[in-house]
Amino acid sequence: MRSYKLIAPAKINLSLEIIGDRPDGYHELVMILQSIDLADEIEIHSISDETIRVHCNHPQVPTDKSNLVYRAAELMATKFPQALAKYGGVDITLNKHIPVAAGLAGGSTNAAAVLVGIDLLWNLGLTQTEIEELGSILGSDIPFCVAGGTVIATGRGEQLSPLPTLDHIYIVLGKYRSLEVSTAWAYKTYRQEYGSTYLRDTNDLASRAAAVHSAPVVKAILAKDAVAIAKTMHNDLEKVVLPSYPQVLQLKEVFASQPGVIGTMMSGSGPSVFALCASQSQAEQIQQQVRQIIPNEDLELFVTRTITHGIQVAGK
Ligand SMILES: C[C@](O)(CO)[C@H](O)COP(=O)(O)OP(=O)(O)OC[C@H]1O[C@@H](n2ccc(N)nc2=O)[C@H](O)[C@@H]1O
Ligand SMILES: Nc1ncnc2c1ncn2[C@@H]1O[C@H](COP(=O)(O)OP(=O)(O)OP(=O)(O)O)[C@@H](O)[C@H]1O
Fold it and tell me: Span of the secretion signal (predicted)?
């Protein structure tokens, strides 16, 4: 029986800037995406019948066709029917550590891992770009999850340009277990409230390059200046999510008030919030402090760090 183990890291957004709407209903974005070492483990093995089976340790995560990993396997089966006939179907086990519906690309990174795993399992020899293109059919964040590191993402979020990688910036990340934010709701609400303020022609490359909030973050990344990154981070979706979720706003304010925190921001469409910290020991202290200030067991707190890679094969 052939099998692979994969590590699928989460992401945070160092910037998320909405610069226009698109005819396909999506939004034109400029984002800076960053991989972190908070990761799910995925095991995938061949099975003799041509089916897809999904198992998961997390009660909130479906194991039917609504799981993104199921859709990733189905896409591979449709694109490569001869390989499916030769090698058989796939059995996928997800061991979740990334909080669900958190703005951390949990489902997307799982799907990216399954694309990488099936490429190996079926000896397809796809390039990273080909795997990213398959990923973009399933979701905007998936190409980044394949690539990982530190990247500028434009278009729907699927067009990637790598930046110099940022290793070992320590982060405290918080997510209320019972809070979930729908990504579609966040973008729709933003469009309703701010759509009339889109000012740039998104076909104009000069306009894209001038993305006002992301440019200083790029400059700070090029200078490898963690303090400048922390001070310039930006997320347009905070404008709609924070007013609707007071607990998330409060968590952000508590993070910001801690000595040793150099900047704090909501990730993606939320509701997770992260704080960039001056060192690992400070991140650990801040985690304990915040736990005392908000003794709510619904709040999950993690110490994590920036990493330089996306999906990794951990073993056969
Ligand atoms: C919020 C982020 O996670 C930030 O990195 C991403 O922009 C969302 O990425 P994702 O979850 O992979 O998004 P998709 O699965 O492609 O789309 C989910 C929903 O988000 C909205 N959406 C997403 C991406 C985009 N550029 N414009 C949008 O309006 C759409 O309503 C879509 O129905
Ligand atoms: N493999 C998966 N892992 C987690 N959730 C999944 C998965 N497949 C489908 N889902 C469903 O997708 C929804 C969003 O979960 P996910 O953890 O991917 O959100 P997210 O981190 O906000 O994603 P993104 O940042 O890409 O918008 C959940 O409600 C969950 O039921």
Answer: none
